[in-house]
Amino acid sequence: MDTYTSRKHTPLEDAQGLLAGTALCAFALQMLTSLGLVTGQTAGLAVLISYLSGWSFGAVFFVVNLPFYWLGYRRMGLRFTLKTFASVALLSIFSEVMGPLVTFETLNAWLGAVMFGLITGTGLLIIFRHGGSLGGVGILALYLQDNVGIKAGWVQLGFDLCLFLVAAFVLPPLQVVQSLIGAVVVNLVIALNHRRDRYIAT
């Protein structure tokens, strides 16, 4: 049987982990938005708002996450909240910086949706393993689970269903289906690889 030794990440390890994870997610989001697709959770809400308003994703994502930090502090503590704030800020900055630097002349939408899911899932795993998150609905879901008794998974699923329902009125049906595929791939990557019993350093 494989064994794993628990140890704390150093500040330098955390810094490079959050930088790498958010850079991967920002690149994947450039791919997603170049195809006119959406995704789930808070990032998906920010993408949808940016489509409808013309505002930049980075600015919208940063603002949308602001109400959730108090809940994150109450539920997960100061260290998690600071890392989450840093991750959200980095993703917002990277998204703004990459905008004029990354273009896709040829990108099949089906492949793009799958690759978005794989890259985003990998980026999120790195962020999670260094004690952060990309904030938003996940924090709210955990808070409601603790205080109201509603399962966190149901809260997140309900939010995503509402988000994609709205997207169905904004995007062509084919793009909604492709968006769903990307979101499913993200969740599969996390579900199959995020195991605290296999990787417990923080």
UniProtKB/TrEMBL annotation:
Q: What GO terms fall under cellular component here?
A: plasma membrane
Q: Which Pfam families match?
A: YitT_membrane (PF02588)
Where would you find this protein in the cell? Cell membrane
Membrane-spanning segments: 17-39, 45-72, 84-103, 109-128, 148-170, 176-193
- Where primarily located? membrane
- Keyword NAD assigned to the entry: answer is no
Entry keyword set: Cell membrane, Membrane, Transmembrane, Transmembrane helix
Give the bilayer topology.
Multi-pass membrane protein
Q: InterPro entries, per this entry?
A: UPF0750_membrane, YitT
The question of whether NAD is a record keyword is answered with no
Spell out the PANTHER family in the cross-references. UPF0750 MEMBRANE PROTEIN YITT, UPF0750 MEMBRANE PROTEIN YITT-RELATED
Instruction: Please identify the protein, giving its name as recorded.
Output: YitT family protein
Gene source species:
Pelagovum pacificum
